[in-house]
Design goal:
The complex is a heterodimer of chains A (481) and B (98).
Chain A (H helix, E strand, L loop, with lengths): L4 H9 L5 H19 L2 E4 L17 E5 L26 H8 L3 E6 L19 E2 L2 E5 L5 H9 L4 E6 L5 H7 L2 E4 L19 E6 L2 H11 L29 E5 H4 L9 H19 L3 E5 L3 H22 L17 H12 L2 H14 L1 H28 L2 E5 L21 H4 L2 H5 L4 E9 L2 E8 L5 H13 L12
Parallel strand pairs in A: 2-3, 2-6, 9-10, 9-11
Antiparallel strand pairs in A: 1-3, 4-5, 6-8, 7-8, 7-12, 11-13, 12-13
Chain B lengths: L5 H10 L6 H22 L32 H5 L5 E2 L2 E2 L7
Antiparallel strand pairs in B: 1-2
The chains are: A alpha/beta (481), B mainly alpha (98).
Chain lengths: 481, 98
């Protein structure tokens, strides 16, 4: 299970290993990882073998974040409000992988309904980082990142509304890819904030991310925001040639002088980042610095909170405990719903709903909701203007490696800095965005992110692939400290 | 002094059919203050009020509308499977009109 998709496929085709053995190994590893890191909601012990075909994923075990609907299999969104929910249909992207012969072996834990960046709020308890159990995996796709990094299988599905694939990937030393908005159908994904929600994948190499996404992508009549991507071939686009490509980074984020009293970890993080830039230059790319209004960058996290909370409040209003979810014994319908929601939602989710409701009130809409949406436009327009000049944006992920559990309680405070939140730009504009591991600080992995213009996924992945080839982190498995 | 109050937070929570503990209420208040400060900065961005709010990820996307034809729907038994109490083809709830 430490191998890549293509390596496993070759072993299966040449009958060096059977599908049955592969599934058994993955299930055994799932139970070990559950015991150590609490990464799963469900382990599918009855997973069946599938026929080995030309499809590279046939017979390969994989994981699915528990906010994807899976027919006949518990799908909780890691929330007590859906702790007994069993869907009667399967999400399109999962269905496509199953049809290609991939074998789902578990459902992974997440921050409740995807609303969180720590991996500490699943109803099954926090997910521990496989590099250091005293640290978080980040979120919300914490279980998927933990499992892929631990070598349970070569890939798992995630979802990304703010940075929920790309930050856990960095904290766990793996690859996390969120394609352009609408390239992957979201039919069957529990909605959080529909204008920001993306499906995506966590893997241990850029090639594996391309292989899986090539299978999952495509227009879907069940998702009107999906589009025809039949002209895009991600795997074939990985040439390793980026000569002449132009990348930029944002001065206000990357200049260490902007960080008062920068600690040694942050300095090391930027040193690693700058080394990655040098590698890209050696490959023939040019890198330039661009400046963006600091007030706009400072507004990113608040814009995200206002918009995502507003959309979430509306999307989650169907969670009443009447049509699905555990039912309250209260004698009155409203009391039933209130009891279900009060006891079912975690404090973080409640907070987000109240903020969402407040900013959507008629008297508050203009000042909060619409102004946030206007800033979203300014930021996206600025990025699109820059993407006319450049092939991609490159930035470090977070302010360093995975945080200790008591370092970040996922509360928006005045000290939240731009470095922690900038990946949300990728969701504001639906930009394709990928994180890959680019080094270690104190034996803990750190990541780098590459984001490009909409529909330019082939280019973004090829840049990541080229950089990955020049570093020794491809395919790495977590080694606990 | 904050313009947000504990009573205000409880009132919004009640509208959402959510009960809050004292601690949860306090956390909402703190977050409101942070957001409000950022929104104040946003309000001062030149020409902000004239901009069209961006409500969707891709402004220029051609949405995929399917033909308006009736397709088979799911069996009622499947739709009711997750409901706590059912009566035939319907979901059972306590009497609403007293």
């Amino acid at each position: 299970m430490n191998k890549s998709i293509t390596e496993l496929h070759e072993l299966l085709v040449n009958k060096k290993i059977t599908d049955k053995e592969l599934i058994e190994e993955s299930l055994k590893k799932s139970h070990e990882v559950e015991e150590k890191y609490n990464a799963f909601v469900t382990i599918c012990d009855d997973a069946k073998e599938s026929e080995i075909t030309d499809s590279l994923v046939s017979g390969i075990p994989f994981g699915v974040k528990d906010n994807y609907s899976t027919k006949g299999i518990l799908s909780t969104g890691s929330s007590n409000t859906l702790k007994n929910y069993i869907p009667f249909y399967t999400a399109t992207v999962v269905e496509k992988l199953l049809n290609a012969g991939a074998v789902m072996v578990n459902k992974t834990a997440l921050d409740e309904f995807g609303m969180g960046g720590t991996g500490t709020t699943p109803h099954t308890g926090p997910v521990l980082n496989p590099w250091d159990k005293t640290r978080m995996c980040a979120g919300s796709s914490a279980g998927s990142a933990c499992a892929v990094a631990s070598g349970v299988y070569p890939f798992a599905l995630g979802s990304d509304t703010g940075d929920s694939i790309r930050k856990p990937a960095a904290y766990c030393g793996i690859v996390g890819y969120k394609p352009t908005y609408g390239m992957l159908s979201r039919y069957g994904l529990f909605p959080f904030a529909s204008s920001l929600d993306h499906c995506g994948v966590l893997t241990r190499s850029v090639l594996d991310a391309a292989i899986v996404t090539d299978i999952m992508k495509g227009q879907d009549n069940h998702d009107m925001t999906s589009w025809d991507s039949s002209h895009i071939h991600l795997k074939d686009a990985l040439t390793g040639n980026i000569k002449g490509k132009k990348l930029f980074y944002i001065k206000e984020i990357c200049d260490i002088k902007n960080y008062k009293d920068a600690n040694s970890t942050l300095k090391e993080h930027f040193k690693i980042f700058n080394h990655s830039l040098e590698l890209l230059k050696e490959s023939g790319a040019t890198i330039q610095e661009e400046s963006i209004d600091i007030d706009l960058l400072k507004a990113i996290s608040s814009v995200y909170v206002v918009l995502s909370c507003a959309e979430a409040t509306s999307n989650m209003s169907n969670l009443t405990g009447i049509i699905f979810g555990p039912r309250s014994d209260a004698k009155n319908v409203f009391e039933m719903m209130k009891e279900h929601r009060t006891l079912g939602f975690s404090p973080l989710i409640k907070r987000r709903f109240i903020i969402g409701s407040y900013v959507l009130q008629k008297e508050n809409q203009e000042r909060y909701f619409k102004n946030a949406a206007r800033v979203r436009r300014i930021i996206v327009d600025k990025m699109k203007e820059l993407f006319k000049k450049y092939d991609a944006l490159i930035l470090p992920v977070s302010s360093g490696p995975a945080k200790k559990f008591d370092e970040d309680l996922d509360i928006l405070d005045e000290n939240t800095n731009i470095l922690e939140e900038h990946l949300q730009i990728g969701n504001f504009g639906g930009f394709p965005s990928i994180t890959i591991p680019n080094g270690f600080i104190d034996n803990l992995p750190v990541g780098i992110n590459i984001t490009g213009n909409c529909f330019d996924d082939e280019n973004v992945l090829n840049i990541a692939y080229t950089l990955e080839k020049m570093m020794p982190y491809k395919g790495q498995i977590a080694k606990e400290k | 002094m904050s313009k947000f109050t504990k009573e205000m937070v409880d009132s919004y929570a009640d509208k959402l059919l959510i009960g809050l503990t004292e601690e949860e209420n306090k956390m909402v208040l703190e977050e409101f203050d942070t957001i409000d400060k950022t929104i104040s900065i946003i309000e001062n961005i030149s020409g902000i009020s004239e901009l069209e709010p961006m409500m969707y990820c891709l402004d220029d996307i051609a949405t995929n509308l399917r033909e308006d034809v009736s397709l088979p729907s799911i069996p009622v038994t499947d739709a009711l499977r997750n409901a706590g109490k059912t009566d035939g083809r319907e979901i059972e709830v306590p009497k609403v009109v007293e």
